[in-house]
Amino acid sequence: MEKNSHKNLLVSVGIPVYNGSKYILEALKSIEQQDYNFLEIIIIDDGSTDNSSEICEIWKSKSNLPVKFFKNEKNKGLCYTCNKILKHSEGFYLQLFGQDDIMTPTKISDDVAFFLKNDNKPGFIYSQVELINESGESIKEDYNNRINFKDNFSKTIFEKLIEQNFIPAPTVLMRTELIKNLNGFNEDFLYEDWQMWLKIARNYEVLKHSVCNVKYRIHSQSIMGRDFPDKEILRNRAAIKIFSEYKKDPVYAEVIELKLKSLAIYSYFLGDNQAVGFLKETLRNKFSFKIQVYYLFTLLRLPHPGKWFAKQDG
């Protein structure tokens, strides 16, 4: 194979589906309209209770693309489903794509060309997104502004990811073999992306492609729009678990320590019943008078001072 040839560089496009009947067909059609010829499609329905499976099966029967379709008997979660997609992926690259998002027709070809331009060295590449609403209309808001991400160009991708998960997941193209070598996605977590981005960015190059090739849909059931009980508490617990893996990192231990400290305090602010344990663990790592006071407050079942002052202001 020539160094800069697309020939035989198969791309596996995996779509986890869960109750996605409203948008899944539009997502699949955008994949079918790609101008890149070397694709395999892997669709896994994760125990949907609507007619998502029927829509996918009908689309598969009419599509000219090689399509693998599987069903989980019951809802297993996003990370389990992504690992199942990974298991069945035969492509050199892996693209996980949301059931409610839309690819521009050159998405895959642009990304493969960008990978090849960089000698296939990146662990993954990502790009920009256009935000759209439930009706597919453009939302006049920048993605970074929406997530309140301010790019500090002096920091590495890993350092930026410690601060925040700013990578728009549906734009990411990864090297499949690398993801398999990293043992796939951790099924203990709610979401598949942040922990994986950190694992890759810590040891491999990650590059941003300056194109906008995905329409990222914001609606009440999307990750960015969805509300569910204890959402912030669960996300914060997941972040604590993720960053605890890097406490002894030879380069970033001090930064990680500060991150875990802020997450422990935030757990207390949120009223998480596990906050006392998180604060205690932070104290065990390094004494802090502020953390000590908060730890005592949690033992006394006192609310975070910030909430007390908020009540006073109200």
Task: Give structural notes.
The protein is of the alpha/beta class and 314 residues long. It has two domains: 11-217, Spore Coat Polysaccharide Biosynthesis Protein SpsA, Chain A (Alpha-Beta Complex), CATH 3.90.550.10; 231-313. The chain contains 13 helices and eight strands. α6 runs antiparallel to α8 (193-203). The longest helix is centred in the C-terminal third of the chain and has 18 residues, at 253-270. The termini are far apart. Mean pLDDT is 90; it is low at 1-5.
In terms of DSSP E residues, the strand content is: 15-25%
Could you name the ranges where pLDDT drops below 50 across 5 or more consecutive residues? 1-5
Question: So what's the CATH class of the largest domain?
Answer: Alpha Beta
User: At the fourth CATH level, what is the homologous superfamily of the largest domain?
Assistant: Spore Coat Polysaccharide Biosynthesis Protein SpsA, Chain A
Q: What's the pLDDT, averaged over the residues?
A: 90
Concise account of the structure shown:
The protein is an alpha/beta fold and 314 residues long. The chain contains 13 helices and eight strands.
Which key terms come to mind for this protein?
314 residues, single chain, disordered N terminus, Spore Coat Polysaccharide Biosynthesis Protein SpsA, Chain A, alpha/beta, 42% helix, 8-stranded mixed beta sheet, globular
Chart the SSEs and their pairings.
Elements: E1 11-17, H1 24-32, E2 39-46, H2 52-62, E3 67-72, H3 78-88, E4 93-96, E5 102-103, H4 107-117, E6 124-132, H5 143-146, H6 157-163, E7 173-175, H7 176-181, H8 193-203, E8 206-217, H9 231-244, H10 253-270, H11 275-285, H12 289-299, H13 305-313
Parallel strand pairs: 1-2, 1-4, 2-3, 6-8
Antiparallel strand pairs: 4-7, 5-8, 6-7
Helix pairs in contact: 6-8, 9-10, 10-11, 11-12
